């Protein structure tokens, strides 16, 4: 008698699941095919994750920008749920060291070597960069070869609204 009750309960749960799935599918067709918009929760055309994403920069519900472990800005969302998975190659940090008005070192802090923006000094050696993340904080440490300079780029993603002070 207990086994029959379990089978009936499982059947009801499966029927409820199919109902929810059909509601989602109708919403997805309306959003993507009729309204020609991107579905903010797209289970049918999910973007596969890559092992480049680091700790996001931003607050809950306020949009985020994600820096990858190589230093690039590789994902962002300004509308909740609508993510853009692309790297804008011009969005980079650059360091310039000067001594007595003369540039002695200039480097884009990215390991990329794009075909565009050829006037920039690309191709930072990844052996001199170290990514660390412990949410809600992340930091990249750059050692500048031959310069005896170490740069640390820190970020904090506040979980509590307006709590931007970095505590150590």
TrEMBL record:
<dbReference type="Pfam" id="PF12215">
    <property type="entry name" value="Glyco_hydr_116N"/>
</dbReference>
<dbReference type="InterPro" id="IPR024462">
    <property type="entry name" value="GH116_N"/>
</dbReference>
<dbReference type="InterPro" id="IPR052566">
    <property type="entry name" value="Non-lysos_glucosylceramidase"/>
</dbReference>
<protein>
    <recommendedName>
        <fullName>Glycosyl-hydrolase family 116 N-terminal domain-containing protein</fullName>
    </recommendedName>
</protein>
<dbReference type="GO" id="GO:0008422">
    <property type="term" value="F:beta-glucosidase activity"/>
</dbReference>
<dbReference type="GO" id="GO:0007417">
    <property type="term" value="P:central nervous system development"/>
</dbReference>
<feature type="domain" description="Glycosyl-hydrolase family 116 N-terminal">
    <location>
        <begin position="54"/>
        <end position="165"/>
    </location>
</feature>
């Amino acid at each position: 008698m207990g086994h029959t009750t379990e089978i009936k309960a499982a059947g009801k749960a499966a029927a409820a699941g199919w109902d929810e799935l059909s509601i989602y599918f109708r919403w997805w067709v309306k959003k993507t095919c009729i309204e020609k918009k991107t579905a903010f929760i797209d289970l049918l055309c999910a973007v596969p994750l890559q092992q480049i994403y680091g700790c996001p920069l931003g607050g809950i519900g306020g949009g985020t920008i994600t820096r990858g472990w190589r230093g690039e800005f590789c994902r962002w969302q300004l509308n909740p749920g609508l993510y853009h998975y692309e790297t804008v190659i011009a969005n980079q940090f650059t360091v310039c060291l000067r001594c007595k008005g003369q540039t002695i070192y200039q480097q884009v802090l990215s390991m990329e070597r794009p075909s565009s923006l050829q006037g920039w000094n690309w191709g930072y050696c990844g052996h001199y960069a170290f990514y660390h993340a412990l949410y809600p904080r992340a930091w990249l440490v750059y050692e500048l070869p031959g310069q005896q300079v170490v740069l640390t780029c820190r970020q904090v993603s506040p979980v509590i609204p307006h709590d931007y002070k970095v505590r150590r």
